[in-house]
Amino acid sequence: MGLSRKAWNNVVIFSMLIMIFFLNGLHHKLNPQQAEFERVMVLPEQSFVLAMAYPGVKIERIGTTWRIENKLSDKVQTAYTEQDLVQIVQLWQHTELQSIAPPQLNPESAISVATFWLAGEELPLSYQLYRTDELYLLYAKRQQQWLELDADIAMQLFKPIEL
């Protein structure tokens, strides 16, 4: 039994559509690293930070102001003004870093960690800081993504604690 001219036209149209869909996604399969490693924001865009914590130090929003609580010593509480705390939080919100391939590091070799509680998020975001010979690496646990940062940015992001 042969197909009519109208049926053959439909076969040709659908086969061309299927070819277009396959060829459209082919470049993603051939070169996935190029699309993966790009500059990304550390915190999600438009995120509203309620609190953040480093080992022994917690910065939290109280109404429209910020306060720092240091469990290690009382010197840090007097050393930071509210404006300093706002700048630290804003730096985290606006920093854009280069994502990289996962390095060969021992997971227990993190030198510090920063945890963020965001409005509308049930679980906190956690970022582990690692140091190699020439640079610092930040591991975003939830996204399972490695980010590269230089020493200056690392010192600014983890300002309330000594690196």
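(the above was protein one; protein two follows)
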Amino acid sequence: MIDKIEFPSDFIPKGLIKIELFDDLTKKKVEEINTHNFIARGVLDHLFKAKMRDVFTQKRNTGGQLVSESFGDMFEQISLTDANHPESPETEWLRKGKVIGYALTTTTYSGSSTIQGTYNAAESSTTAEKVHMVFDFPTNAANGTFQSIYFHQSSYVQPNDYYRFPKIGNGVYSLKKYNDQFYVLKSSTLEVYNSNWNLLNSYDLKDSSIRDFEIVDDYLFYVKDHTTNTIRKAPIANPTALELVIQGISNYCGGIAFNDINRQFIIGNYLSSNTVQFMYYDVNFNLINTITISNNSLSLSYDKSKLTIIDGDLIARSYYIDTQGNAFKVSYYNVCGAIDGLLYDSDGHLLPKLAIGSRALLDAPVTKLNTQTMKITYDFILPPLF
């Protein structure tokens, strides 16, 4: 029995890219770069499975529905960033790096933004064999150095109710899996479920200001949103036996996470709606580093602002945030946990890792000056239907 389908090479759309820089005064081309992209595994895997689900269940008397409509357009926006990490087609799912420029693929733009270019509808075309997209960036837009070109949704949308994890009630703050059991933090309650989501125990923590928790080495670590008694811990066998670990470390502390890779705790100190301080501690809660990030695109608050680590990346509330303050929204609702490669949000949805559609890593950085215009031509060569 064949239990896994491997996509043949001619099944995957191929992206051919040309970047052209022109001197605005002479109109002469000063640089041309040609490269290619990869299609993210999430697109090939999750979207394919969703469409197959549609084919088999749609309009059946068993309650089928169009699952694929849960996902947005993974090629709605093109973004140019300074990300230079190696390509990993099998695992990459996030846009990373500072955004130098971007353009929507579904509409044109004629404003004065310093980063937004426009889709060139006159030179673009779509056929059954090829999608030919052209983007123009005037002298005032996308000035700087970039090395990655991403396609992704312009804003992450909420999957519909088909992608819900088992009903565990409302008001979920944080969710973890440990030793094949699920731990769910609500207002002042910790609930424990077995692997089949049957409730095993419910513990009254008698403290409604606890906002997040982490499990490390058979201990629960709770974080409060006040300056006093900030971090407390309890043995996993007795979740209500709270013991003070550290206090008075923050303004409003709303999140805690543990990075298994470097064995460090991360605690979020929310200074304002767009400024957050991440404090890094070793396993004995000795302070290692503090990073303060201000980003006007963020909408963070200490209230229920849990931290989540997935694949070594930090998710704060609904945003992926790197150490340079670059942010990318990954969820419509707040992420309350990451388990077995899936994100769980506070409204009860399971979110597959589908934040990007593709990425191209350039062989060398490209720098656009304010005396130059830029044209990016992107051809997606589509696989044959038959």
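Reviewer note on protein two: Residues 165-348 form a domain with the Neuraminidase fold (CATH 2.120.10.30).
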